């Protein structure tokens, strides 16, 4: 697959006494394995396979509480958890936990007309006053992504 096209739009009031804003965006088709450089370091996880067809998000923040929706159409999603010390997925425990994750906790596919209804993720994330702006925006979005891929 070629490089994904990603579009993000933010509306941030210059003077917002209550930490309110809006952000939304979309991303085109891509091989989800491309996220591994980030995931392996940040989450000790690896995407073994997965194809994103399209994704979008729409998030409002009012008084520091992010709420909104995340939509993603994807298939063939498989994850592996990595040992925090070695970075390997080959240990017996890592393989057992990864198997359980893929079999019982992760939606392998999220597509209209597929097995089961297409799931839309819900964002509900309160801002920690110590969080910097980008960390807050990412964690709010991530909460919706996790909701989409979780059973």
Which tags fit this structure?
151 residues, alpha+beta
Write up what this structure looks like.
With 151 residues, the protein is α+β, with helices and mostly antiparallel strands. The model has no long low-confidence stretch (mean pLDDT 89). It has a domain at 6-32 and 49-78 and 107-149. Strands 1, 2, 3, 4, 5 and 6 form a six-stranded antiparallel sheet that branches. Helices cover 25% and strands 37% of the residues.
Task: Describe the protein's topology.
Layout: E1 6-11, E2 21-27, E3 30-31, H1 36-42, E4 45-62, E5 65-81, H2 92-105, E6 121-126, H3 133-149
Antiparallel strand pairs: 1-2, 2-4, 3-4, 4-5, 5-6
CA(first)-CA(last) distance? 27 Å
Structural class: alpha+beta
Residue share in helix? 25-40%
Please give the number of β-strands: 6
What is the radius of gyration computed over CA atoms, rounded to a whole number of angstroms? 17 Å
Please outline the major beta sheet. 6 strands, antiparallel
Portion in beta strands: 35-45%
Short description:
This protein has 151 residues and is of the alpha+beta class.
């Amino acid at each position: 697959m070629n490089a994904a096209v990603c579009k993000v739009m933010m509306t941030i009031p210059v003077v917002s006494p209550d930490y309110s804003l809006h952000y939304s965006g979309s991303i085109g088709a891509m091989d989800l394995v491309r996220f591994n450089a980030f995931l392996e370091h940040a989450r000790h996880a690896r995407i073994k396979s997965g194809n994103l067809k399209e994704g979008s998000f729409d998030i409002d923040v009012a008084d520091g509480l992010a709420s909104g929706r995340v939509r993603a159409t994807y298939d063939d999603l498989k994850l592996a958890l990595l040992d925090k010390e070695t970075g390997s997925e080959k240990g017996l425990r890592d393989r057992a936990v990864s198997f359980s994750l893929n079999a019982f906790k992760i939606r392998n596919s999220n597509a209209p007309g597929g097995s089961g209804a297409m799931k839309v993720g819900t964002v509900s994330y309160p801002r920690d006053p110590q969080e910097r702006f980008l960390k807050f925006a990412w964690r709010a979005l991530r909460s919706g992504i996790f909701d989409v891929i979780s059973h």
